[in-house]
Amino acid sequence: MIKLSKQDRAVRTLAESNKNKKMTRKVDTYEYESLEACIRSDQVPPSEIAEIFTDKAYYKWYADRNFVDK
I need a surface site. Which of 24, 52, 58, 67 has the fewest CB within 10 A? Predict the structure, then answer.
């Protein structure tokens, strides 16, 4: 079982609720790690996280790093 913090659960819920939505925001690959740090440190508002995760490539990258059982 994966143990996630409250913040991680909220981010995952936002991400999964936007899986089938059309991409409204593209994240450049050079921004991936810095954006990940901002999301994980609660610097990005939930509405923006939801929009960011419409980029399926970024969502997959983020999910592979943060939502897997380590």
Answer: 24
